């Protein structure tokens, strides 16, 4: 038994060991406990590291080899790397490529990467960087910098999706974080290049009291060129926080865009937190860049594009997000485009051309106003700039500064959007939005066109008439409206439903019989009742061999007649249930439903004059059909009134014989009941007039006299018997 227990215990230990080996250990916040430096590959997949033959990276372990080598002192100056596959880094905590730590006592640790990474259009997922313990600069790269005579440093054609970056400044003089690179710096006269890079994810870097620098793509940048790069981020930062770059000096950004939300303390901007005077001869340059970022600041200098632009040039740039400041105790310096522009004593200040602020600005301070465009103006120039005064009623272009020095136009939403599209996007590109009816729970809209670039609305395809977004809305209906699910039913009723769940159009079924299979003399059939409104069907029942025959009768309209071209109709009633009605036959042939009208009570059929006028004069048969039987009668078609010689004649005997005009010889039983029995001579014989009428009167008198004589004789015989 003891041996069995030992064996079982050993098996359990092995089982759990396998689990821990195969599954990464996660902290409470989902950060893996294991690090990539401990799981780095021994070599790359191939290549010699030249531009023509770059080192080939096929998985996370090979990418981690770069980080491990740089941490151990390998700079990789002018070395080229290329991703060959998409890479998932979620198995372990990432160790940034490049190390820089600046401690409060002044000591530093410096390990930089000076090579070039070609992303080759591939995507990195599962990037998790946690520098709350090791306190390194955080990102895929911790530090990228020139060294010696390096000639080509940077990154291109790379996508990083859903990254998570954690950092802290505790015990540090300064620290920085971003998804791509925490810190980037080139020598004077050189630049580090970033082309066609896209990043998305979250950054948390919130320690209060130190210089915590955060940016979506780059944390801190000096002498960087970035072209066609994009960031979609949520950043919880401290100071110097921007949606694209946190702190920048002497860099150039072209055709770059950032979306998301940024929160922080001081110098908080939708695109750049703080653009500073890194060199007196140069300035940060932003050309055709857009920030669609909501900015929330808890201290001062907050703007939709730049928190603080001490020195820089911005042309054809736009801030599209809202800006909110919670500062109450001092000047918040908050504006739609920039919190503060220029600084006393800074050569050149800031230059803004064709820049626009399209968001709403909200400031909590009761003593200092925010600016629709800039919170505080110190030094700078403005050309063809505007802000949305419709969203910011009561705000001037500036909150604090010289009015004449801030010639920024206060425009409507439509005007600002139009300028934005014209000067930044190259003109409107319109997309049609079809009209949609409103329902009980959702708004509808009129037909309109929207610009896919700036979001402006137009009532015409040519973009000539701009309208507001509110103008296209059709408010939802107060009345319940049936949704698209059609009819619902149970055994008794059917109904529609509203989007809110309310039952509509509730009513009982209207059943009619449907023959599924006709019965024959040898084989049974089947039929079922089906609702003519919703289609609900009862269970099928059997039709016996030979079919079901019920004895029905014509209760009204037997022997009816119709005069051709009279324009009237002919109606008969049968005692069958209307729900079982299937049609009618005339002269043994079933006619189309367009030739008659049918309704309940029990079953009433009315032949239309348009059909009756197609029949020949004479006697015809009519049969009403139900699913389980039929009933028949005869009706007469008479010549039209215009063909009769005397309007006093009510009936015409088409079987009159001119050779037999003696009324006493007339036999009522001999009159044919169907015009098909008439001879051609009878059909072609012209009606008699004049004396024929006298003969008819005489015949009537003789008939009455004969009837009276017969009655007297019968009475006498009966009396004699008794």
What does this structure look like?
The protein is mainly beta and 722 residues long. Among the domains are: 430-474, no CATH class; 482-548, no CATH class; 550-641, Immunoglobulin-like, CATH 2.60.40; 644-701, no CATH class. The strands form 9 sheets. The chain has a 23-stranded parallel β-sheet that branches. The longest helix has 31 residues, at 691-721.
Summarize the structure.
Helices cover 12% and strands 37% of the residues. By secondary structure, it is mainly beta. The chain is elongated, with a radius of gyration of 48 Å.
Features:
single chain, 722 residues, mainly beta, Immunoglobulin-like, 23-stranded parallel beta sheet, nine-stranded parallel beta sheet, 62 strands, 37% strand, elongated
Task: Determine the fraction of residues in helical runs and give it as a percent range.
Answer: 10-25%
User: Any idea what the radius of gyration is?
Assistant: 48 Å
What is the CATH topology assignment of the domain at 550-641? Immunoglobulin-like
Largest sheet, strands/sense/barrel: 23 strands, parallel
Name of the top-level CATH class of the domain at 550-641:
Mainly Beta
Number of strands: 62
- Strand portion, in percent? 35-45%
State the end-to-end distance.
Answer: 129 Å
